[in-house]
Amino acid sequence: MSDHLLVAIGQNLKAIRLRRNLSQESLASLADLDRTYISGVERGKRNVSIINLFKIAQALNVKASELIDIGVAHD
Amino acid sequence: MSDHLLVAIGQNLKAIRLRRNLSQESLASLADLDRTYISGVERGKRNVSIINLFKIAQALNVKASELIDIGVAHD
Predict the structure, then answer these.
(1) Closest chain A CA to residue B49
(2) HTH cro/C1-type domain location, by residue (chains A, B) (predicted)?
(3) CA distances from A29 to A14, A37, A52, B42 (A)
(4) Which terminus in chain A has less CB density within 10 A, N or C?
(5) Do A65 and B65 touch (CB under 8 A)?
(6) In angstroms, what separates the C-alpha of B55 from chain A's closest C-alpha?
(7) Where do the domains of chain B lie, and which CATH numbers do they carry?
């Protein structure tokens, strides 16, 4: 379950970033995170923590819940 | 920002758990996590990762996004 989850969230993040016309570099700067970290999240390689999730969401001007709302069946 | 965030999410988790009439022990068992970990999350002491967030949400039968939807201003 975990890998699919992280990959789906990474794809969701990338889609929102691109809608905002932000590069990984500018998103990383806005979120006070490293560009390689953002790249890792988008590739589904990072098990993001809540604090970093909120930093990224704030930088993208979306709710953190939107970043992880990927329609994973929860039952 | 971070401490308030983790405390608010912890309180939100506890409220949902109690609505489900689950003890920390049974939630931990359902989520395949340790009770002390659940306790730490509820006290705002744990910077929960996405994978654990989804495990807890699945155990509570809620969407992970609901667990972190604590109305933090994102602008």
Answers:
(1) A49
(2) 13-67
(3) 15, 11, 13, 31
(4) C
(5) yes
(6) 9
(7) 2-68 (1.10.260.40)
